[in-house]
């Protein structure tokens, strides 16, 4: 087995969100999550079979809330309330966890190590230092602005571990 680590393309990310949420999603190039934004972001840590960090994905609170509400078929107001209170409500967090788990399919490629979702860190929880370093690292990364139709938008940053 060779190490064929490949970032998913923005089209693959859009298709995954659209298929999962059942609505139009617009994806465009975006800025990386800043260190300050990580404090309120939802962060997914993906590992290989040896529990080594493979990739880290961060979603700005607004994207996590909007995607979580859309996935749960909740009104957009549920996401807005969550954003206003600067926390991801438990029902939205549960939906975002599923989104992160399904996102793993974009990281698994034939001939590459099997990648799985290890942990999801929600706003207010402590992000491990090694995961934070990978998320903020330059290099193999994808930074997007994702807009969920009739809900709202937010940043998504994905960074592969060196």
Automatic annotation (TrEMBL):
<protein>
    <submittedName>
        <fullName>Uncharacterized protein</fullName>
    </submittedName>
</protein>
